[in-house]
Amino acid sequence: MPALPDRADVRPDARSQSRPGRSEWASQLLLFALMFAALMLLHAPLLRLPYFWDEAGYYVPAARDLYLTGSLIPQSTPSNAHPPLVMVWLALAWRVAGFSTLVTRMAMLALAAFSLLGLFQLARRAANLEVAWATTACAALYPVLFTQSSLAHLDLAAAGFTWWGLLGYVEDRPGKQVLWFSLAALAKETAILAPLALLAWELVASLVRSRRSEFLPPGGRRTRAVVFALPIVPLACWYAYHYAKTGYLLGNPEFFRYNVAATLDPLRIPLALGLRLWQVFGYFGLYLLTLAGLLAMRRGPQAADGGRRERIALWIQAAFLAVLVAYVGFMSVVGGAVLARYMLPVVPLAMLVLISTLWRRVKYWKLVSAAVAILFVAGLFSNPPYGFSLEDNLAYRDYIVMHAEASRFLAMRFPHARVLTAWPASDELTRPWLGYVAQPFRVLRIENFTPGEVARAAAARDQFDVALVFSTKYQPPHEMLQSWTWWQGIKERFFGYHRDLTPEEIAQRIGGRVLFHKESDGQWVAVIVVERAENAQLRVTR
Questions:
Q1: DSSP H helical segments within 339-416, as ranges?
Q2: Based on the domain organization, do 300 and 449 belong to the same domain?
């Protein structure tokens, strides 16, 4: 991390700071309320949107099964063995306030506000109040974190509990540390990386304590392996329960194949490593903060009362670095989809160190931080010149709106039709509680809209009447690396990239006609009626 080479006096031990009292708990409650209110206000236009992509495909169905049946193992979808904490939280919210997308979004925003409060407290303990406010504001506006704040996914909750656990580590409060890291692991299994990384770092530190002591935890702290290992226990109990109920330890076989077996390729790992580093230091405007932090390292510390501005203690930075390295390394090896949300636990840690470096060394550091925040806001509304996941900015809203309009068109024109489509639209049309249709359709599902899959659909032309087709991958209007055929081949081989046919090409190959077509900044959706079905519809109308 860029600020590690910084040379100045080490900050005082965090344990010397006062423990939270009644007034501090009250202030934390007030901060939480303010953060929740701010998030509600910023997300107000998004709160009633139907469910999107992985929400619709797994997390909401799993939580709904728990809500309806009390079962921790999903019934309506194959289990991925994800720990159930977030699903329990959603089921509880629905039990109290009713099953609706509004309740879901509000419940997730409450988790997001609690997570940002943990980041704020961690930044305040590690650095100071000014850096804490700047870090929390930038993190809240970072496009990936912003969109994840209201989506029913696991990653932001796991990140928030991880930040609270790191706060317990910095304050040397073992009980707090065990509690929050355990909750993080029960939110998402990969969160166990943080305590294990800290354990590995402290073991290394105990072996090299005589060298560069400023990089090591204070002398009064001793490595307590049991503190770092205890969060494994509830996670292990969950996996034992899951295995007893399903016969699978790490999710269904297809989930394991996609996320583990298919990713253990010596050529794919370094490519994924490069993508993970980009997601931590460059993605959606992070490059400006990283560049500013590196340039700031060439300047001396700013003067302060009685000396110069202090940095984050190097042993704290080293602990953050250990967690970051663990995440970057592990997520480069596993995970079929190299999604940016998987890195949420460590991206704000990098932000914290970089903003602290700016605060210490740059006179107008607030202007630089404001410029970064403005770039983040711009990234919410404008797509980058390369492929990205739609859930990483407000492009996901465009997807939902277009699919909702196409679904309404289908319901009005062809309410009893058999529909050809691909996932996740196949779930959108068959599960009314996802928010797209009032009555379920009969669906014939294909994988995507590549030539091979469309040819397969054309061969089964008598099994569907209309087709709901859409862009399954974001395609930039002017892709930055479009002319690099070798890169296109690498993406196809290792990262599931493909090009969908256009609606007109699909219509021609299945013998149909486009009746509905809408586009929005690199995305499109269309409804195609098969000619014989259209003729039958006309006869019924007459």
A1: 347-361, 365-381, 395-413
A2: no
pLDDT digits (tens, 9 = 90+) for 467-513: 999 999 887 776 666 666 776 777 777 777 788 999 999 999 999 99
Last residue within a domain, chosen from 383, 414, 448: 383
Buried/exposed code over 84-98 (b: 16+ C-beta within 10 A; e: otherwise): bbbbbbbbebbeeee
Print burial letters for 43-52: b (CB count within 10 Å at least 16), e (below 16): beebbebbbb
Q: Which residue stretches of the chain have pLDDT < 70?
A: 1-21, 208-213, 219-223, 478-484, 487, 532-542
Burial level of 208, CB count in 10 A (0-12/13-18/19+)?
A: exposed
Say which residue the tokens 């583990």 belong to: 260
Q: What is the pLDDT of residue 20?
A: 56
Together in a domain, 339 and 446: no
pLDDT tens digit sequence for 52-92 = 999 999 999 999 999 999 999 999 999 999 999 999 999 99
Name residue 118's amino acid.
Answer: G
Containing domain of residue 493, as a range? 394-541
Contact between residue 293 and residue 358 where contact means Cβ atoms under 8 Å apart: yes
CB atoms within 10 A of CB 477: 8
Angular region, 265: left φ>0, alpha ψ -120 to 50, beta rest: beta
Q: What token pair was written down for 474?
A: 């974001």
Q: Contact, 153 vs 51, CB < 8 A? A: no
**How does strand 418-422 pair with strand 442-446?**
parallel
Distance (Å, whole) CA 68 – CA 433: 13
| Number of separate domains in the chain | 2
**Residue 540: Cβ-neighbour burial (10 angstroms; 0-12, 13-18, 19+):** exposed
Per the DSSP assignment, residues forming a β-bridge with 307 are 304
Token duo for residue 319: 């602990």
* Mean pLDDT for all residues in the chain: 90
pLDDT value at position 191? 98
| Biggest distance spanned by C-alpha atoms of the chain | 91
**Quick check: 318 and 4 in contact, CB under 8 A?**
yes
